[in-house]
Specification:
two-stranded antiparallel ribbon, 2 strands
Length: 75
């Protein structure tokens, strides 16, 4: 935990120094929420790399879906 705190402290300092914005995103559920409709499909095992949203039918790659959800928070 200390090393992550130090990295965050340095990133905060550097962003302030260069006039940038540091966005902290909680990674909780980013790969489980449908990036298209927001449906929570529940817990997935890490071995499950692709899934289909039962609400809207969208096919998701776990990592790409998480990236889309993180980008939505930062926008």
């Amino acid at each position: 935990n200390q090393s992550w705190r130090e990295i965050r402290r340095q990133l905060t300092y550097k962003c302030a120094w260069y006039g940038k914005r540091l966005v902290i995103v909680n990674p909780w559920k980013t790969s489980q929420l449908c990036a298209s409709c927001g449906f929570d499909d529940g817990k997935h095992e890490l071995s499950l790399r692709k899934w289909t949203c039962p609400n809207c039918g969208e096919n998701h790659d776990r990592d790409i879906n998480a990236a889309k959800n993180i980008l939505a928070v930062t926008a």
